[in-house]
Amino acid sequence: MITLTHYFILTGILFSIGLVGVMRRTNLLMLFFSTEILLNAINVGFVAVSKYYNDLSGQLFAFFIIAVAASEVAVGLGLLILWYKRNGSVDLNSLQMMKG
Amino acid sequence: MYEVIAFYVFAALTIGMFGIVVTSRNALYAMSALAGGMIFISGFFFILDAEFLGVVQIVVYSGAIMALYAFGMMFFDTTRDVSEKMRSKKIAYSLSIASAVLVVAILCAPLVGESVEALYPSIEGVGNVQMIGVVLFTKYLVPFELAAIMLLVAMISGIVLASKKMDEYLAIEDEDLEDVKEGR
Amino acid sequence: MENYLYTALFAPLASSLFVALFAARPKMLFTGIVASLLIAISMIASFVLLIDVNTYGPLHVSMMDWISAGNLEIPFGFVVDEVSVIMMVTVTLVSTIVHIYSIGYMDHDKSFNRFFSYLSAFVFSMMILVMSDNFVGLFIGWEGVGLCSWLLIGFWYHKHSASWAANEAFIMNRIADLGMLMGLFLIYWSVGSFQYDEFFASLKTMDSTLLATIGLFLFIGAMGKSAQFPLHTWLADAMEGPTPVSALIHAATMVTAGVYLVIRCGELYTLIPDVGFAIASLGAFVALFAASMALVNNDLKRIIAYSTLSQLGYMFVAAGLGAYWIALFHLMTHAFFKSLLFLGAGNVMHAMHDELNIKKMGGLYGSMKATAILMSVASVALAGIYPFAGFFSKDKILEVAFNEGAYFLWFALFIGAGLTAFYSFRLVMLVFFGEKEYEKYGIHPHEAQPFVIYALLPLGLLAIVSGFLEHTFEGFVTRLLAQYEIHIEHGTEALLIAATLGIALSGIAFAVYMYRRGGFPKSWEERFCYKLLSNQYYIPKLYELYIMRPFSALANFAWQKIDTKVVDLTVDLIAKMVYSTGEKSRKMQSGNLSDMLRWMVVGMIGLLILAFVYRPMV
After folding, report:
1. Which residues of chain A make contact with B132, given a CB cutoff of 8 A?
2. pLDDT tens digits, one per residue of C100-141
3. What's the gap between Cα C229 and its chain centre?
4. DSSP 8-state class, residue B144
5. Does C602 reach chain A within 8 Å, measured CB to CB?
6. How much is the pTM?
7. Contact partners, residue B178, CB within 8 Å, separation at least 6
């Protein structure tokens, strides 16, 4: 029988995969992919909670997260394209103007 | 029984796909793996009786977002291998594992939530989509509208940022950028 | 009548605040005039109140609630009764004259405006002190006059001696004020109120030890303000301030606040005659002690300052022995002739270009007749010669001492009277008569401006005639203060008066005789007595050696060891830690997004650990 704990563990694994991606990728596009993984991992968790507590709120949260992800991609890609046009690269190492 | 099998199959597939996403050197592979992973995630949603969300997942993620990334990639010429200098992998992995363990530990520890009363319980005999529709357009109407506005804003900003003619007026001027580069 | 009360109280404040607007500007004549006018208004209001109190009795107003916390209720209340109205009239009268006088005296000073601001602020504080209907208001005024005294003694702050004297006065007063505060706390602790009325009403039910303690503590406060032994050294040093300040604050008004306090708490001191007798003994001692120091001093203002000390001693004798109205009477007459003496001395100083050594003067009568006459009048009044004011009040004090059977005190005061006469006329002779020593120093003295002399005339008049008001005064203030009956046979009384008058006259005669012939021979200055007296019994030296030196050693130790090695070090260490952490953590800010994301994950893990540790248990 699959319990909530199983889903949580799965969520945790997916989330940590996302974190690995976030930390290891230096290509900005790949970084975006990793953030999508993070969001999806959390979504799985929400829906699982929704199911096991028999409450729709979790699903609605997941729904809004998808909406946020969609807007994030739209804006993020726009910025990325702008940066690429100016700089010819989407590598993180080209983005170090904030050095303290 | 089928549920258990389905869960493990989907779990293995998802983890595998996402593993490819974060490790692959080829952007195209990564993107394809991501799209696959998204679809397998929607599989979980169907197992969990959230048909509406499963459909949305496929439509929005695998359809819209992936298409967007695919278009984005056309600009970047990422068909060739991405060369990434990875520094101190151990730190990255250990941090991720630590956080995953912590998240699981917190979520699986005995919770106050065991006694949580459902705020919007699903009713027997009423479909998931119907139920979500009712709750979304009653209790969550305002967030829904806000999300709509957010999407609109994001769409406009995406267009504005990416369109070629307007970029002169946006962000930093080229000379400024030169200055910054020289100063570095 | 309330309006008059508020006028009398707040006109000086208005004056001070108005003049303060121009305090940093160069001299503006109108500031002095406006200040004098406003103080004069206050004086007129005080006189109206005097008549009113005489006709209708005391006036008691409560302006507003001031402190209201728990059981503590202190209203901003003022009382104008027989005692406070006498004080108000005295204070405002002398203040008005001093203000007008200062217009002439401070004429060349570049801080002219500031001076008037301080002076008016002082008058306001003094009015608060005398008019308050509770001990806290009195204490506020008490501290206010202390502050103004500090400001005015140190008015020429660029002079080291002046700022030193100001600090000395302030610190001495703080020591005494601690005693006073203890008294006030005891009053509140035992009575639960600071109002005079309530305190006096509950006196009967209180333990006599407690009363004696309160009385002693209050008197310690009075000792500081009135410069009684052993806290007397500041008064002579306070003469560093401008002369009008010495006249107003350090002769006529502020230093008598201690006497006022004892008079005001007369009902308390009547119940504790032992403490009263101690006060009287100390007063008699100071009367003699200060007079002896005045004998040999060559500093014009210091002589008068010691004389003030001595006269304050007389007042304390009267107040300590229960003759409160006599103390108040002497306070009033003393205010008139002593401020006259000081203001006259101010004229002399101006004429002599701030020379204070009376040995370098002499023969000034020729060039400053009016001042000479006024100062002689004041000296005669001070010496207590009939029919001048000092005779009536001082003689009464001697009678009181005799009447109480305190023959020793009487004798001390009797000798003091002789010394007073001697040193007063020593001063007059050395300054105004004899050889014109100043010619050797190339000084050309000149008389003060006419309006200054005219301003002094009322004081001169009062120094002559105010003694005759004795019976009116007695009838007026004894409505509030205890009656004091003197039971001495007429023959003895006449004898006493004759003896006092005799010793005063002989003191004068001796001074005139000696200084006509050029004074004492030089060899006297080598004698031990002379040295002892001219060094003020070595008390300032003792204070320096046994109090100031150890204290400054302690302060040095605290500064060099504790402050720099412990306190500063701790603070510096914290600052250094902040700096070094900032310097080290600056590397975190590499500008690389990957690194930032890593730090973000580290932070997230930190938060997760927190969430795990503090997770809500079932």
Report:
1. 56, 59-60, 63
2. 999 888 888 888 899 999 999 999 999 999 998 889 889 999
3. 14
4. H
5. no
6. 0.68
7. none
Give CA–CA dist B177/C495, Å, rounded. Answer: 110
End-to-end CA distance of chain A: 53
Q: How many residues does chain C have?
A: 618
- Which residues, numbered 5 to 64 in chain A, qualify as contacts with chain B under a Cβ-Cβ cut-off of 8 Å? 5-21, 23-27, 29-30, 32-34, 36-37, 40, 43-45, 47-48, 50-51, 53-57, 59-60, 62-64
Structure tokens at C392: 């009536």
C-alpha gyration radius of chain C: 29
Q: Which amino acid is at B133?
A: G
Spatial contact of C157 and C219, defined as CB atoms under 8 Å apart: no
Query: Rounded CA gap, A99 and A96, in Å?
Result: 6
**What would the pLDDT profile of A69-92 be if each residue is shown by its tens digit?**
889 888 888 888 888 877 777 777
Class of domain B1-84: mainly alpha
| Nearest-CA distance C577 → chain B (Å) | 28
Nearest CA in chain C to B112: C618
> pLDDT value at position A20?
86
- Cα(C410)–Cα(C400) distance, integer angstroms: 8
Nearest to A59 among B132, B160, B162 (CB): B132
Residue C93 corresponds to which tokens in the numbers above? 């009268």
pLDDT-flagged residues of chain C (< 50): none
Place of tokens 């006059």: C145
Please tell me chain A's helix, strand, coil percentages from 3-state DSSP, rounded to the nearest 5: 80, 5, 15
Confidence of residue B184 (pLDDT cuts 50, 70, 90): very low
Q: What is the set of domains in chain A, with CATH numbers?
A: 4-89 (1.10.287.3510)
Residues sharing a CB contact under 8 Å with residue C290, sequence separation 6 or more, in sequence order: C232, C306, C307, C309, C310, C313
